[in-house]
Amino acid sequence: MSPFRLSCCLAPLTLALAACQPSPAPVADTTPTASELTAASSTTGQTDLTGLIARAGIRCDSSPASVNSADCHAGNGYAIDLHPDCADDGFFAASLGPQAVPLAAQPGAETSGQLPGNQFVCIQATARRAQAPDYYYVQAMDPAQVPACAGDVTCQAYRPAAGARCSLSQPQGCVSGWVPADTLEVFSNGIGAALPDDSPLQAADSAWQVRDTVRSGDGRFQLQILARPDDPQAPRSVRLQTVQDDGRVYELARNDRLVPCARCGGLAGDPYAYSRFDDDGLEIVIGGGSRQRWSNHTRWRRPTHGQHWVLEWVQREVVDTQTGQQRSQKLAASALGSPRLADFDPSTLPPAPLLP
Questions:
Q1: N or C: which end of the chain has fewer CB within 10 A?
Q2: How far apart are CA 45 and CA 244, in angstroms?
Q3: pLDDT at 298 over 90
Q4: Helices marked H in 96-184
Q5: 330 to each of 17, 59, 67, 128, how far by Cα in Å?
Q6: 50 CB contacts (<8 Å, ≥6 apart)?
Q7: Which helix (H) or strand (E) holds 298?
Q8: Among the listed residues 139, 126, 132, 9, the one whose alpha carbon sits nearest the alpha carbon of residue 70
């Protein structure tokens, strides 16, 4: 997989559909423009959270639920992360290969439909029992609806949504449901378009290799996770960079403590799960374990002034994969001294939650 796409080492299962019926033939091309899509996102993607929760069979203890709710669940004990926005900072993917992918009404439920192969989708929710996603709730989309896909060769490789031109303002025309995580190719916010050359970074750090590269939707920032091929026990190096208009990349922050080594995740394997930008910041997620799976989710606030990215919160969780028992802990940055990304040291955090 290209290092410019989100790493997606994920676990499998099944998903649901919201039938795909063509709408009446339009007299003119009704594909939303970039500005229309952004406007639709602010009304449909953001505020229709209640509709998404209902369609995806999600239960949230807090009321009203928000995209930052940490108490949402679905299926048999799956924790849910919500990311309903399907505009500039959406979470996009495509089904792998020519074969159709099974859809279900809830994560882990019996198959009730199919997502076409090579279908471009927006991921609106993630279901997991450990750190790595097990299922994604997806909505099929035409790549032409996504501003980040303009001129992007990767987007052009995937078919438009089946039937009518489904859109954020007309979601009834789009196939949707839960799909196993390992049936999707998950893209970075910059989709698959070529990013600035990594050679300046590689020349300065010849002992490191790029493990993952993620770019912000506006193209101003990118995050790289680097690994030392000669020392698999060494922690990864997290590099936050700014991308100039001329394509040059400058480092804003470096942290060699945040992401553990490739062999530090126990039986679950590599503990690095994924990183993701949105309008307001950056999330970096790690996890591991065996029967009891742990996860650490850090959120970094995008600066409005200056260049320092500061911790917003840390969320930690442990789940017993056999009994479904779980405990979680959310730590506000103010209680931790609001450290900058470059200064953050996970070893200074209070004890993580434990199960009996």
A1: C
A2: 30
A3: yes
A4: 153-156
A5: 33, 19, 15, 17
A6: 64, 65
A7: strand 292-301
A8: 126
pLDDT at site 3: 39
pLDDT at 190 (0 to 100)? 56
Asked if residue 200 lies in contact with residue 239, where contact means CB atoms within 8 angstroms, the answer is no
Beta bridge partners of 216: none
Give residue 248's Cα distance to chain centre. Answer: 26
DSSP annotation of 19 reads -
Query: What mean pLDDT, rounded, does the chain reach?
Result: 76
Q: How far is CA 290 from CA 129, 131, 173, 247, in A?
A: 12, 11, 41, 42
Q: Tokens in use for 230? A: 């000669």
Q: What is the pLDDT of residues 32-72, one digit of tens each?
A: 333 333 333 333 334 478 888 998 999 988 766 666 666 88
User: Which of 79, 78, 77, 89 is closest to 38 using CA atoms?
Assistant: 89
- Per-residue tokens: 38: 């952004």
Q: How far is CA 336 from the centre of its chain?
A: 25
How many angstroms separate the CA atoms of 257 and 236, rounded?
A: 7
The whole-angstrom separation of Cα 355 and Cα 91 is: 32
C-alpha neighbours within 13 Å on the C-beta side of residue 260: 18
Distance CA 291, CA 328 (A): 16
Q: Please report which confidence band the pLDDT of residue 94 belongs to, taking 50, 70 and 90 as the band edges.
A: confident
Strand order in the sheet with 209-215: 209-215, 221-227, 237-243, 249-255
The answer, as to whether pTM is greater than 0.85, is: no
- Residue with structure tokens 């990311």? 83
Residue 249 dihedral angles phi and psi, to the nearest 5°? -110, 130
Q: What is the mean pLDDT of residues 76-99?
A: 81
Coil/strand/helix, residue 144 = helix
Query: Per mean pLDDT, which of 144-158, 192-206, 319-333, 338-352 is the most reliable?
Result: 338-352
The Cα 331–Cα 230 span in angstroms is 35
Copy the structure tokens of residue 80. 């849910």
Q: Which residue has the higher pLDDT, 201 or 308?
A: 308
160 secondary structure, DSSP code: P
